[in-house]
Design a protein that fits this description.
alpha+beta; globular
Length: about 120
């Protein structure tokens, strides 16, 4: 099957979370790995949510699957990086990075003057 490589720009709006999740599910559906679809769509949702809540700018999503590795990059225009919260905090946000730390094989943050990109990889 051909490698997957999709890019999109999502508005700073709550509806973008579902749009990002649907895009990832649709793109990954043909690989027939339901765990991958579930994990990838969950983590992309968390990162897009974080970007909208904390970044307050449009969000760029770049998702690709190549050589058995799914990689997603979510970028926004705010260079501040959210700190992972401790699990005992009951806040409704801040769990995204914790989930990524638990589920992803690798993840990281790249910052620049124009904003930040949080990326993660999942082995297929």
């Amino acid at each position: 099957s051909r490698p997957m490589d999709v890019r999109t720009v999502l508005p700073c709006d709550a509806s973008s979370v579902g749009a990002a999740r649907r895009l990832v599910r649709h793109e990954l559906a043909r690989y027939g790995d339901s765990d991958l679809v579930a994990d990838a769509s969950l983590l992309v949702s968390e990162l897009v949510t974080n970007a909208i809540v904390h970044g307050r700018t449009d969000v760029k999503l770049h998702a690709k699957l190549r050589r058995g590795v799914f990689r997603a990059e979510v970028s926004d225009g705010n260079p501040a990086v959210p700190a992972p919260r401790r699990p005992n905090e009951l806040a409704g946000t801040g769990r995204g990075l914790q989930l990524i730390d638990e589920i992803a094989n690798r993840w990281g943050v790249k910052t620049s003057r124009s904003g930040k990109t949080i990326w993660f990889e999942l082995a297929v």
